[in-house]
Every structure is written in structure tokens, then in C-alpha cells.
Amino acid sequence: MAEASEVLMSVLSTIRVPRPGDRVHKDECAFSFSSPESEGGLYVCMNTFLGFGSQYVDRHYSRTGQRAYLHITRTRKAQKEDDNSSGSGDPPKKKPTRLAIGIEGGFDVEQDQYEEEVKVVLLPDRQEVTLEDLATMPDVVKERVSLSMTGLMSADSVSHALQVQQWDGEVRQESRYAPELKQLDNGVKIPPSGWRCEVCDLQENLWMNLSDGKVLCGRRYFDGSGGNNHALLYFQQTGYPLAVKLGTITPDGADVYSYDEDDMVLDSKLPEHLSHFGINMMTMEKTERTMTELEIAVNQRVGEWEVIQESGATLQPLSGPSLTGMKNLGNSCYLNSVMQVLFTVPDFQSKYVSNIEKIFTDAPSDPTQDFKTQVAKLGYGLLSGEYSKPAPDPVDDPTSNPEPRGDQVGIAPRMFKALVGRGHPEFSTNRQQDAQEFLLHFINMVERNCRSGENPTEAFRFLVEERIVCQQSHKAKYTQRVDYIVQLPVPMDQATNTEELQEAERRREEAESAGAPPPPAPRARIPFTSCLAALSEPETLTDFWSSAVQAKTTASKTTRFASFPDHLVIQVKKFTFGLDWVPKKLDVSIDVPDTLDLSALRGMGQQPGEELLPEVAPPPLMTPDVEVKGILGSHGNEEDDSLYSPLLSPVLDDSTVSQLCEMGFPLEACRKAVYYTGNTGIDAAISWVMGHMDDPDFSAPLVLPGCSSAPGTTPTETVSEEHLATIVSMGFSRDQATRALRATSNVLERAVDWIFSHLDDLESMEVSEGGRSAGESEGSREPPPPPGPRVRDGPGKYELFAFISHMGSSTMCGHYVCHIKKDQQWVIFNDQKVCASEKPPKDLGYLYFYRRVTE
């Protein structure tokens, strides 16, 4: 065996020193969830800076020939109790005083204390070189290797760089009203204590308006606590913008809120503004919790939603294959819940876990950026049981016997989350997200990466049949579209406890008029059969353009299944908009059944003797004072309009478009809403938006009927060859790529989104490059596959096998957990906690997953 110094000398040119911008993976293996804390530690390639667990480092060596690796191992230090310990065995923790993370006074980022050992390992013989050994080697070796080791250990790992290490929720801006705030000389003087709301006599959560000294109660919180909104209502009446929270005033400052700026603010003239009403800041003492302290209390109470998390019972922890917990990386519970359920589906198991060796063998040089590799890694981590081990007990006393909590070591899907969220405005952040939106996002990514070969999302894919009947001509139109999720409406008027709800509403109104806190509201109980009836009942279209009568009329639309998928996902539409356009969550209980028969909802297609509406496009939209002219083609001229486009450029009501945009809807969706409602006003446009928000091409550019290009382009416009090559490389034909680019004004990102939302149209196009030509198809003996996307079909009978529940007032906050049926036993997956479920709250779910029952 060669001396280590000789080996290092021979590979010295391959040993690199990390530079700014290099991606250093020193926390997680590229192929597994091994880390420096795992058995065997982590090996970091000193050339590529990729990390590998003990079982995968030899694979990397055999593929690349790279011999030098930095071996990092960490072992947990024994924890010592100090004099301030509570005696529970846990180290004392300082109470947070700031709404912040990772800075003085904020929430501590809990980091276990570890002993770390670092050395160089040379493959294939795994020769070890310590720092002591390095000191005896030639200077050129010692200097180069030492620089590389120091650079690797001091560099931020990729996972560390992706996390928000410091976050301060108390950074407030100076209010624009503070410097020139006008205060009324009304003689009002505020006493140092004994305050009450001047409307309802509430004695807590009181705010004094800094313009006139009015003392009123604060906002009502989502759970019914807090105030009665009188301070807010007073601002709406008077426009006086600033208020200070009484009880928080100290010589150091106070809570100041700007209603117009809708945020906590700084008031540099606060002592002057308070003294106007006889308040001396230097003598005031704090008697109420600040808004920061209230927010901290809320953040420390995560996990109090008892029913969904089954917190009231001592749940039995579970471990083993398919029972692996996932660490919460900061509001990543939506991702954890969705992926736990997806890897219960056999299609995903066979695609990614059964083929894991081939996927890893075929992985590119940087597997951390390969979709298949990272999905397979996650699937194997969840199903293998290798990481399904109890979390180490922080209590060192062997005589203690704490209650089982169900926490596991689990897996931390950092690489996976970074990869699937890359470039996405929401999923790339640490904010809470909608689990349903993430499910569709992930399905879309799988579709893009499975253009050829086995596609596991086919398990969820189904066809929807829409039948529209013109009420004037009684002729029908049939269309089909692809979908993956059934969105189940919640008819609140069908509640079985209507009298209880009405009585609660009466008591609430009485309490509000009396200025008292509202009583707890009961939960509406909605029969599942009523939700299903609302899904299948006909919808009336008031502005339907009928090609039979060549005019707008009313029509009825019914929606049915054209096929039934192997696995059916049902989303309960609990989230809606109030009259003020503020999102709200419906507090409902639905008796979701364990078994489901949807056979009666299968579409039957064109009925005997039924006439179809003619395939004629509606006339172009124009205002009466617009002369009918075409659009000049790319080779047209004023004298010869033979190449003019047959369609007119739509004239849209800009004010209606602007109003819709101000409500937060995408510009292209607003343009389509105004176009398809014929410039008939904001109400009709809003109705169109609300009825089409779930369309896959909701935000796609407006494409006029009969034209494959977006406004402002022509069918003959030249498309980018580079963009064409990119889309063709994803498995689409040149014709399909050209059509997508022309429909999206040559914008690659929009073209990719467009092409995946129009798969049913594109699949029927003639296959050109990369597939069979039309001539080959005609000459071949095998008939061509049917046009349209590939869907599975079978009986419409299902059984429930999983559901995802949401806790909180909005999908943008709160917490997700999932329940999955394993061997006839319901199991709750609550991030790292995996336990046997005793009372699965099936009536409170958000997403339900059914699988087909075969006779």
C-alpha cells in the first residue's frame, strides 16, 4: 500500500479549495439521508464538494476516480444540567423576548452540541490522514490539503445557505404620518390607569388614538378573543391613522399601529404625542403584553389543535418500514403530508423506489440537482425503515421514564424541497403553503420528467366530461378535459344543525351589540351526500354564446366523469372569499365515507337523437365605433389585405381590467374575463373569474378563437430556435413546441406551462420529430394510439386510504398532518411524530385520497 503522502501528492491537482459561490454539501448525502451524525459519518469529495454516506462513497469513487474525501463525523455531547435547571433533565431555556430567530432575545435555533472529528480519507483503501499526520508531510501537500480542509469546514453548506438563519419580526418602519401628525386641542387628558373602551367598556386590548385621545378596543382575533374592532371602526369613520396600545407604554417606547399603513410602526415623536394628552412616558409601567409577546405566545402554542392532532390521548409510537417521520424544515408540513401519502401509492413506489439502483446508476455528475434521484432518495428514505428510529432522549438519567412522544430521527428533505421549489415564487420560500397547490405542482414536475416511460401520475389522472345544452336551441356541446383532483363544494345551506347555527348567530349579534366577547361558535355539519349533489347538479350559464342561434343566451352545464382513475383525490373547498374579498375558512364537519360509489356520475356522451351545436367561433369582440379591419400579417400591406388575420384585435374595457387586477388576479385572466363576458361590466367579469379560477390555463395569455397565437403575434412569426430545442428535448415534437411558443409570444417559461396545460390538444397533433410520422403510422400494421392523454379507467367504487387535515384560519398559515391507513390501522403522521391513530378525524379533512376497489 502506498504511503498516504505519496497518494496525496499524486492527487493534489484534484483537491480544490472552495471559492465563493461553490455549492458545498457537507450536511447530507446526495443519495441518502446520511449526515455527519449518522453511523459512518459523511464523506465530502474534495473536488466536487458533494457529500456521500459510507455506503455510497465507493460508488462515487468508481465513477469519477476521485480519491480524496473529507470525512466528517459528529457525536452528541453529554448534556449537563446547570444550577438554573428546572430539574426535569432539560437544559434551561431563556424565554424569548423578541419575535425573531437566531438573534439575541429571539427564538433559539435548537442546535445539539456535538463533538466533531475531521480527517482526510483516501479511497479505495480508506487510508486516513489526520491533521497530525498532515503536519509531517511535505509543505506543498500540507498547504494545499490544509487550505481545502479549512475552506470546506468554514464554508456554508448548501442546506445552511437555503435556510433563513436570522429573522426579526420586530423590524418596524417609521410611520409617514408621525412627523406631521395633527393632534386636536380638545383638552382630553388620559389617566395613567383605569382605562375602558368608550364604546363597550372593555378593559383590555385598549388603543388610544393619537389624533384626538379616543380610547377604544382593538381588533377581534380569528378565535373570537381580543377586542370588538371599535378602534378600527373609529379609524374608518375619522381617518385618524395612528393609535398606541395602552399598557405597553414604558420609557423605552410602546406599540404604535398605523391603520392606513396596516402595520406596526415607529413614531419618533411618541413622547411629544403622548404628552399632548397628559401622558409622561418616563413614569409609565408596562401592564399589558405587547403585540410581539402575543405573537410569540401564538408561535409557542403550535400543536394545540387537539382534535386533528389527537393531542388528548397518549398515542402509541410506531416505527419500521413505511413508518418514517419527516422533519419540519420551517412551515414544510404541507410538503411532508403530501409526500407521505404519495409514497403510499404503488405507482410511485415502483417508479422511484423499486428502480432506485438504476436511477442512482444513471444519475448525472451532480445528483443533488437530478429530479429522479432526489425523489427516489426521498421514497426510499420513507419506505425502507432505515431512518424510522426513536429520537435520542435528551434526558441522560436512565431511571427516568418519560411518556412516549412518537418523535423519530426521521429524514430532513432539504435537497428535495430545494429542488422542487427552485424558481417557484411560493414553494422556494419558508412560508406555509396550500397542500393542494403543492400536490398539483409536484404532479406537474413528475409529468415533465416522465414524458417517456412509466408515469406514476397516471394513477390520479382522469377525464372530465362537460355537457353544455343551449336552452334556446336545445342543442348540446361536449368537451373533455384532464384533471387530477375533484373539488367538492360545501353547500352551507344544507347543514343539518341549522337551528343551532342560527341560535349561535343570534347570540353573537347580541354579544356584539352589548360589547361583550362573542360566544364560541358551533361547527356546521354538512352531509357528504349534499356535497356530492352540489358537485353534480347542473350549472346555469347566463352569458353563453350559442353557435346555433348566433347570439348570447342561457345554457345549462353538467359535469361528469369520462373516466375513473385508480386513485381519486377529493379536495373539500373549505376556503372561500368573504364579501370583503378576504379569504376565510369554513368551519365544517363532513361525514366523509370510508367507501364511495361514483358510478352514477359517469358521463354517457352524446345521447340518441341529440343534436350537437355547430362548431362555429363567436364573432370578434368590438365596440360599435370601431371599423371592421383585419390585423396586418407579417407580409401584409395596406393595399393588399389578403394576408390579414381573419380575427379582430379585441377592444377591452380597460377600467374593468384594472379593477380586476387591483383585486389581485393575473392580468391575462382579467383580460380573458372581460373578453368572454363581452365588456358587460365588473360583476359579470368577477363571476367569470370565480368560475374559472381552477382552469389550468387561467393565467395563460388570451388566445382568440380560431387562432393559435396570442394577441400581438401572427401565425407566421418566427420562434426562437433555442427555445424550440429546449422544448423538443423534453419529449415534445417540433410542431407542438412551435405552437406553444406562438401562443405565448416566444416566452419559454410561459410556453412550457402552456404546453402542459394543453396536453389533450397537443397529443392529438401529428407526431413529427422524435416519433412516428403520419406516413409511418398509416403504413404500420399496429393502429395508432387513440388521441388525447393516456388515462386509466375502471369501476367508480373506492375506499378511503388517506387524508390530509389543515389547522388554522388560512392555507397560508397553520399546520398540516396526514392520516394513512396501514394494514387496516390508521396512522397519524405529524412531521417527526408517527403514532397509531385512535380517533382519526375523518370529518375535518381537507384532501381525501381514495383507491379503487376491485371486485
UniProtKB/TrEMBL annotation:
It comes from the Eukaryota. One of its GO terms (molecular function) is cysteine-type deubiquitinase activity. Pfam families: UBA (PF00627), UCH (PF00443), zf-UBP (PF02148), zf-UBP_var (PF17807). Substrate binds at W207, R219, R220, Y221, F222, Y257, Y259, D262. Coiled coil: none annotated. Belongs to the peptidase C19 family. This is Ubiquitin carboxyl-terminal hydrolase. The lineage of its organism: Eukaryota, Metazoa, Chordata, Craniata, Vertebrata.
